[in-house]
């Protein structure tokens, strides 16, 4: 079965280590992913998180491009609500000029942080003039087109090849928006693994895009033994916070849930603790699950997000998966 494997890394900070250690681990994993033949390596955007080091993916992307030579590097993704579409286009056109044909621009709708960091990021934004997400995608399309005859502001420099564009989402609405704007859809199965939602979203994107299939992002952890993988993943938890205004958000602990509510200015909230959806087991077991998803939904590419385990475990996992998929190796 033929499909591509790519990676998403959040630069988790291990207990007793520093953000600098976490970022060095991300660089090491990216270099190894290139050697193993992975197609893309994406980094995330999370703000004011004591356990995650990647707050500015565009800065980290530049460094990773300099430390690799073939693998595509990108954002998974830029949290577009915080930024000017023009500035995002400038940044990624510059990156694509530094490393032609290797840069991916993935964007998402979420804030990527708690209310205080969101307010800090948007301090100078006039809410009455703030464009909606669909308008920002349209603006990005205009700026990334690099049309020298366009009479508006141009997001120079114009690269030899434009960054590839990806919309991260997990809904029929996201699928239809991605197709309408001409963006590749990445279904965030690591955040919303509901099979019925996945099927409906895939069908909506295929219908609206004229037959294209989304990329599927999943959390996955491979180990030498099924028991070890089960033990490590079994300790992971997600806490879902429900606020009175209907907003929901996933955080990593009850303490983070309480902090999110405090920053949002509410005391009347409830939580649900859930076990995250993570493919786990031996590399052979995970490969069989990916093969089945490829067969059932026609998935052309998987972006695998390794849970926030140690750097050594994340590295071992991608090596086992690459070894299992011999066709992956360049």
TrEMBL record:
GO cellular component, one term: cytosol
Pfam family, one: Bac_luciferase
Residue ranges annotated for the Luciferase-like domain, each copy included: 17-296
Single GO molecular function: oxidoreductase activity, acting on paired donors, with incorporation or reduction of molecular oxygen
The entry's keywords: Plasmid
Family annotation (SUPFAM superfamilies): Bacterial luciferase-like
Entry superkingdom: Bacteria
NCBIfam families per the UniProt record, alphabetical: oxido_grp_1 (TIGR03558)
Homology family: To bacterial alkanal monooxygenase alpha and beta chains.
Protein name listed in UniProt: Luciferase-like domain-containing protein
Organism the protein comes from: Rhizobium johnstonii (strain DSM 114642 / LMG 32736 / 3841) (Rhizobium leguminosarum bv. viciae)
């Amino acid at each position: 079965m033929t499909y591509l494997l790519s990676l998403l890394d959040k630069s988790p900070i291990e207990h007793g280590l520093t953000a600098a250690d976490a970022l060095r681990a991300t660089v090491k994993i990216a270099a190894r992913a290139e050697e193993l033949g992975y197609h893309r390596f994406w980094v995330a955007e999370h703000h004011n998180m004591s356990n995650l080091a990647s707050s500015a993916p565009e800065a980290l992307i530049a460094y990773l491009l300099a430390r690799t030579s073939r693998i595509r590097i990108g954002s998974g993704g830029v949290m577009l609500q915080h930024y000017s579409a023009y500035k995002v286009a400038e940044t990624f056109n510059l990156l694509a000029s530094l490393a032609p044909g290797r840069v991916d621009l993935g964007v998402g709708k979420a804030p990527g942080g708690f209310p205080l960091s969101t307010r800090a990021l948007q301090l100078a934004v006039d809410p009455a003039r703030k464009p909606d997400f669909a308008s920002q995608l349209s603006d990005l399309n205009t700026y990334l087109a690099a049309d020298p005859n366009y009479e508006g502001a141009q997001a120079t420099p114009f690269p030899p090849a434009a960054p590839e564009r990806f919309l991260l989402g997990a809904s029929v609405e996201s699928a239809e928006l991605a197709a309408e704007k001409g963006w590749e859809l990445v279904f965030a199965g690591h955040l919303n693994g509901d099979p019925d939602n996945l099927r409906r979203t895939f069908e909506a994107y295929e219908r609206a895009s004229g037959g294209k299939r989304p990329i599927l992002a999943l959390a996955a952890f491979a180990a030498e033994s099924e028991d070890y993988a089960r033990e490590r993943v079994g300790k992971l938890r997600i806490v879902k916070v429900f606020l009175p205004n209907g907003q929901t958000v996933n955080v990593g602990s009850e303490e983070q849930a309480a902090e999110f509510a405090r920053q949002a200015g509410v005391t009347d909230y409830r939580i649900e603790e859930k076990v995250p959806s993570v493919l786990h087991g031996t590399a052979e077991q995970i490969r069989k699950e990916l093969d089945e998803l490829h067969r059932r939904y026609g998935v052309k590419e998987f972006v695998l997000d390794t849970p926030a385990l140690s750097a050594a475990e994340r590295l071992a996992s991608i090596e086992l998966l690459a070894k299992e998929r011999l066709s992956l190796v360049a």
